[in-house]
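We examine the record.
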Amino acid sequence: MPQQKHYPHHLDLKPVMHAAGTVRLPGSKSISNRVLLLAALSEGTTKIIDLLASDDTFVMLGALRSLGVQWEQEEQNDPATLHQVHHVHGTGGVLPNHEADLFMGNAGTAIRPMTAALAAIGGDYTLHGVARMHERPIGDLVDALNAVGAQIEYTGTPGYPPLRIRRGHLHAERMSVRGNVSSQFLTAILMAAPLMARQHSLTIDVVGELISKPYIEITLNLMRRFGVVVEQDGWQSFTVQPGQRYQSPGVIHVEGDASSASYFLAAGAIAGGPVRVEGVGQGSIQGDVRFVAALEQMGATITMGENWIEAKSNGVLKAIDMDFNHIPDAAMTIAVAALYADGTSTLRNIASWRVKETDRLAAMACELRKLGAEVEEGADYLRVTPPAAIAAAAIDTYDDHRMAMCFSLASLDGAARRGNKIRINDPKCVAKTFPDYFEAFAGIAHQDLF
């Protein structure tokens, strides 16, 4: 379990002249919570190395324990050891506890797959979270499951958590789910599909345009690691043949988080560099490594190895006009990097920002304006014109970890303009995915920020 950590009410970042150094990334959130659930549903024990230690994995570990899944964290005899090791004892898809009340925090990567798995397994379960979780849509997933025999009820606002799941009779050989709000709905059904395809094959049809396809690629890759193969017809339908069961791979390593890498790579591109991140590289299964293509388009110099990526500045960043539907989380970093560009940047096809930890389109527009930027906020796009000089500002974070992390970049001195004093309000929100983010940022800034 992650250690509880003290954070101040706000954190003042001083202007940073130059950013350079190496950062070892925490484990990927997307991979960590998928691996935990797959390990719990598998036959056999899985040794997980470098699981992310954060609020989101904390709620998944807690939920698994409430369901009777046994797991333990390996004691490290050497305090210098960097690798966390967890052992999860699989249940073969038969959970010990048929009744449970599960707190899911604000972890979409936990509540969505868990909802589908519990609906397929059956029992009497309630799932709830923090207030913002109860504002994040889950109706497309619930509708898809209920249409094939699940019994999921809303105990609050229809279409949103909290949920009550009772034992249903799932019988479909074909089902459909909308793909244009969140790819996590399809991920959830895919992960639960082997539990539903006991006697007959199951085909899942995607209705509408599927967003965030790289996250589906992560899901399919990890399912293969646990012994289940999904047949694809492009991005429109997915079929699981009957009789497949999750089998532990024995040992699995969690890659470093590619979304978290974006802040440090952007810092290298803005403020000199080189900045290197370790734990993710050209062999990554995470789509967010494609973030580096956007940095390259802005003029940064990028080099990659199998397990590392490095970025350095190549002069003033160029303005960008790009579709970010495939990497919505990392795209937030580009929005702040746009403050250092030579003109107006446009980030397109990012409507999914509105149903994340906060309405990120509205939040980003508001906070970028505090820094002096001219911002146009559309239904699914953001247009950022940088200011002549970045203004000092107190940044509100909306209980959203990525707001806190990406706005730290506004303290950097770039080739085009100088960073300024930046106050990050409520910095504890970074505990969701990267509890030590500000220490890592201070490491590449080469000054005491605190």
